[in-house]
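Case study.
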Amino acid sequence: MEIKLKLNGKAVAGSVEADTPLIDFLRQKGCYSVKCGCDTSNCGLCTVFLDDVPVLSCSVLAARADGHAVTTLEGLQEEAADFVGFIADQGADQCGFCNPGFVMNTIALLRENPDPTDDEIRAYLAGNLCRCSGYEGQLRGIRAYLDSRKGKGAQNGN
Amino acid sequence: MATEKYQYVGHAMRKKDSMQLLLGKPVYTDDIVPRDALVVKLLRSPHASALVEEIDTSIALKVPGVVAVYTWKDVPRTRFAIAGQTYPEPSPYDRLILDRQLRFVGDPVAIIAAETEKAAAKAMRLVKVKYKLLPAILDMHDAKDNPVLVHPEEDWYPPCPVGGDNKRNLVASDVESDGDVEKVLADCDVVIDHTYHTKAFQQAMMETFRTYAEMDRYGRLHVISSTQIVFHCRRILSRALGIPKSRIRVEKPRIGGGFGAKQTAVCEVYPAFVTLKTGRPAELIYTREESQIAGSPRHEMEIRVRLGASSDGRIRALDLYTLSNTGAYGEHGPTTVGLSGHKSIPLYTGSLEAFRFSYDVVYTNLQPAGAYRGYGATQGIFAVESAVNELAERLGIDPTVLRDRCMVRQGMTMPAYYNEPASACALDRCMAHCREMFDWEHRYPVRDMGNGKVRAAGVAMAMQGSAISGVDVGSATVKLAEDGTYNLIIGAADMGTGCDTILAQMAAECLDCPVENIAVFGADTDVSPYDSGSYASSTTYVTGKAVEKACTELKGQICRIAADLLGCAPEDALFEGDHVRCGTDGRTVSMEEVAYKSQAGNTHAAESTATHSSPVSPPPFMVGMAEIELDKLTGEVKLLNYMAVVDCGIPVNPALARIQAEGGIVQGIGMTLTENVTYDHRGRPVEASFMQYKIPTRLDMGHLKVEFENSYEPTGPFGAKSIGEIVINTPAPAIAHAIYRATGVWHRELPITPEAIAMSRPEENA
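After joint prediction, the assembly is written out as follows.
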């Protein structure tokens, strides 16, 4: 079947099978940031936005995206670059394979709740598994970013 | 000992690849290979033990898009080992690419290559196999000297004498001792005698096993794989495929985690075989299920500890017997088991009068085990540290104080660790530091919270090694570029750990230039100097020293080239970072001038390759403390705090060292509480996906706090030892200890589930 959607702001069309998962379609379209980690909707690596809502692209059919807007990390480079350096400062990127899904979900969190507590961060990102970092460094990175943002805001008199 | 004198070593800095990784750039195997590669799939045995009586591929081959289906009849008959180890490998040559005899549920029966995933999947269902079921060994206790043989074949071959015998289902067996352990035990006031059991835990790295193969422009087999061991991989492929090493190139891109899993060539041979047969690019990506059921997990071990002590808490004798289950094939079987004793017993060098360590490693019809962070030390330390905690509790002595009396200290010689010296050992300081940081005095006493919940704490120590002494080889090439920057080329494999970065920090320190001026590349068998690979906690310690050596040599070369420019004697030319100065008259030439000179009418190489190996393997040390809250009704354990202090020598990059420690601790928490490996009565694995195999989420690990006590290892680069593996070793014994404190029950089998806690009673367990 033919589908048409907006991918990272651009109109794209493609031919998919009825059972093609969205992740396969996105990787075919060159969005290699989208990773498969588990096949069972447990790991969060394949997180993308469907109409700005985070979804697991391994568990959404490509056909479902027909007529909708899909955003991957390729489309959010600037918004991500804003804070991922703070994760890098902690060394918490590690192998990096979980990073795109984790970064996407963190963007979703910060859009929804610009000033989350540590427990809110943990709860929101609970579905994003990471086997390398032990999570604490990711949290420190996000916290450092939020603190720096507050610092900047204060300087600007906000 | 202080790191203040260093500009780059000892300083936290970002990983060189961090922004590529965090912004999701295409850097992993499946991101960079051509889209038109053949999809390779493996038909796997549904039986734990069977013979392929008949196999018919004719219908499968008719599926449109299917290019080839290979069976045991099509593959070379040379047995090989897929363990990534230095030749001659201690692991037996017990595998064929496809074997007629199937030895575990998941053993490959046929290789299918097709244009699309769908065609491959359809063909897989249409391969007709008639299996002859054979009796299976599903319990490691039944394996040794059972008439049912997992490997009856006559061409089973052990390249090293490790005490194995395939006609006894034995992969390795040995006993060693120092002093008369029976005599000392008989003289002890207290003897703790218990058996501890750990499972075949999965590394569960986020990127599953995967390999791509193609014929390159020279007609050679070019393999791109998510591997920790490019050079071992080339040697393994050469033997398995029967082609010379000169016809094979193996490289690794970025790797989505390894933890030892990728120290075994788990999937490389299959797409390589397809490419060799068809001449076409081929890629195999394991599903999570395949990684769970046919990967290379930790060796299941059962360890009997007999610990003898005086009534004042001096540990006088340790007697360990380890039974290790290598599963259907022997990868890493003979070596992992050694660490269960060699890296647990020496912790008590301070008071030990005698020890004995004996073991058997057996075949069963279960998933073959491999290398997983900790590599046997994890299992041994769970057993010994638990026994020590049992001793302390029985004697009513604070377990940290008891350890202070018995632990290994700097300057001691460790008889149970190949008589190596503890040249750098801050274990005593780690204990004191952790006790204070954790507030042991207040958290150790059991606290009833009055709502059915109890808070309690536990402690454990750990050690590991830094490389395999006298075996592991690390090399580095450093080259000068025209603008005075450098290329550092290594064969070690950064699998996310950050070794590319810490090795660049060392090079920058040696060459007195910013870390940004060091471009790192690794690893590719065509390009990299030889390196055993990244495993056995070796890269910082061994490859790091090679970097140091290569830089020293290169500086000499640079001075020779500069001397020509300056018209001075080479011994008068002084390397000063961005320039070389003539010591006699003070004139200088810039590094850029030297670099350009190196490319015109010059006969001194502006590059250097150095190789290093170490006769010793200096252990890092660690203390970990856990605080839990246990629900007495449900048995649920909530980890509140985990604190640890690590002595890894001088941490080259404290941020990365800290993350290594935190990540390892959380993996240790997983194997203690939630990760399980079980089989049904037919030998089928139960935990085949992340639905059943529960690795910790960020809600399951409480709060972590990791700090360091530095020591200075004289044989290491800049005083460094290792950090990668030791960090997984303390959680199991420390949490088991806390659970005992809360319940009065010692749990000697991992994982310790809420069910196990809720169903246990103190009296069962005295």
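Observations recorded in class. Residues 2-74 of chain A form a domain with the Ubiquitin-like (UB roll) fold (CATH 3.10.20.30). The mean pLDDT of chain A is 95. We will return to this complex in the next lecture.
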